[in-house]
């Protein structure tokens, strides 16, 4: 289906009315075409995540949770052991689609846990519990992003220039985005930010998605190429950098879209605060430092052809195409979560955030 509604009116991830498929916007076609696609099989869900039709750490978690619910519905047995075995197989398969964003395994683990803790129930009721859990994961994501927006808004003032990298916007979450949440909440309150969106090579999530959703929301946004961030910072146009992230290690090192660490280093050079917006679901206390984060390597064609299906580079040239990089915690001013703002020393402040989350 192709449609002409404002992009902000769409849900990034949803169930269809009959609950037989996961509905997403094919983000590889944006902004040119808004096409909704229905994912029914495990392969369709896996492909959609791997091919970045749905992308962004929280959104792939929600897509996988809905995906597992749809796949669980199709498991044709009343026997708990057989049901559980098949569910875990599907879960592991979906989890193999992308390695860096921890939200994917976090959401899938929550779904598996629901299955395990309800093992005494009939399989039909376990399926109902899985449905409730998937919907809860999505609803929590909306609440989480809004809270991040509220905390983030305290770090800036009306009229500020804000730079962001990649897309940690509504299209990467269920609503508001993470890095864009302070921008959207500020917009509602008349803050009139001037946002600079890095294009984000090689797949242009900043140019195609962030610039699109901010512009569609009436935010003053200027698109820049990745190699222009130092120039706008040196010009004095940037008061703060907000980025999202795919995994936060226990020491505060952060993996986010490739190029993020360059922006952080340049921000440090110009004394501009660098804020990482992270739901607690993105914090992985089992990963000690950034060195332990598995960085996804993507096909060379993303660099050599992009989507042109025609070579833009010399035949046979070697390509290095990591999807993410690690920003060292020394470059990060603060990590903004739904339970408050963590600052150095991060090992301690992130632990305090977790303690707070357990009290709520
Ligand atoms: O490869 P992508 O497009 O999934 O990368 C997305 C990012 O790096 C985002 O910044 C991150 O997932 C946070 S989304 C709120």
Automatic annotation (TrEMBL):
The active site is at 246 (proton donor). PANTHER family: METHYLTHIORIBOSE-1-PHOSPHATE ISOMERASE. Pathway: Amino-acid biosynthesis; L-methionine biosynthesis via salvage pathway; L-methionine from S-methyl-5-thio-alpha-D-ribose 1-phosphate: step 1/6. One of its GO terms (molecular function) is S-methyl-5-thioribose-1-phosphate isomerase activity. It is an enzyme of class 5 (isomerase). GO terms for biological process: L-methionine salvage from methylthioadenosine. Keywords: Amino-acid biosynthesis, Isomerase, Methionine biosynthesis. NCBIfam families: eIF-2B_rel, PRK05720.1, salvage_mtnA. InterPro entries: IF-2B-related, IF-M1Pi, IF_2B-like_C, Initiation_fac_2B_a/b/d, M1Pi_N, NagB/RpiA_transferase-like. Belongs to the EIF-2B alpha/beta/delta subunits family. MtnA subfamily. Substrate binds at residues 55-57, 98, 205, 256-257. Pfam families: IF-2B (PF01008). It comes from the Bacteria. It catalyses: 5-(methylsulfanyl)-alpha-D-ribose 1-phosphate = 5-(methylsulfanyl)-D-ribulose 1-phosphate. Catalyzes the interconversion of methylthioribose-1-phosphate (MTR-1-P) into methylthioribulose-1-phosphate (MTRu-1-P). The record marks 166 as: Transition state stabilizer. Gene3D superfamilies: translation initiation factor eif-2b, domain 1, Translation initiation factor eif-2b, domain 2. It comes from Kineothrix alysoides. This is Methylthioribose-1-phosphate isomerase. Its EC number is 5.3.1.23.
